[in-house]
């Protein structure tokens, strides 16, 4: 259980594959679960298990657990997490890749994969992050929480505050922020030329689910209010996740409360414009769309 808001685990422990690059210590997952699980029989979910750290922690703690990853065929950017797990998660743990730092597909596993968030440029990564966080939020039950462990990074002298980005876009209510001191990371030796301060921490942001509804049903007004940090493209992609084939009218209906929160009178034109992006959307026939494979 977390004793305070700064944690340090010099020894990563025995959970998961220690050679999986960018893995995290099981100690933080154990503390997270001990701190936020309210029901012993609640389902624990990790949509990006990497080298299986959370898998081992959950097994050792005797918890009900569903873990997957892009390397297992599950894609947080096109699949609907709630439908995949088949029930709502009590607690969700997510340790995303950081754009451009370590590449997973094509290096740690399989062939290069266009949905692999570690291979994206910063702009695509930002949108993917929005989409993934909405997907996770929607898969958590009312009263449940999700924790996102995120590091910040510096590239060519610019500091990218990814944890702050997560905080801005997550639809849940932020309930805790835990600073994790980093040990033995690559940047200790390599990336510190110049006058910059060495980044030696990651942040675990913990959010409580705000309400019980999925994106397409229920209290949309509240949901829209929570979504003000999200881009239009991410919102349209979220509506189509989980192999949905939808008419423009249904897409617009789902987005209407969001549009109200944006105060954009021409939002339907904006939705049509977003749907032109062939990297993400396929027009099956006039006015009917699905996500690109
Ligand atoms: C930082 S690693 C997780 C490491 C893990 N916590 C561990 O201790 O081994 C991030 C993971 O996200 C996965 N990933 C990348 N893009 C994804 C996507 N679109 N959907 C699901 N997982 C994805 C990568 O394959 C990688 O395993």
Automatic annotation (TrEMBL):
Keywords: Methyltransferase, Transferase. It comes from the Bacteria. GO terms for biological process: methylation. InterPro entries: SAM-dependent_MTases_sf. One of its GO terms (molecular function) is methyltransferase activity. This is DNA adenine modification methylase. It comes from Stutzerimonas xanthomarina.
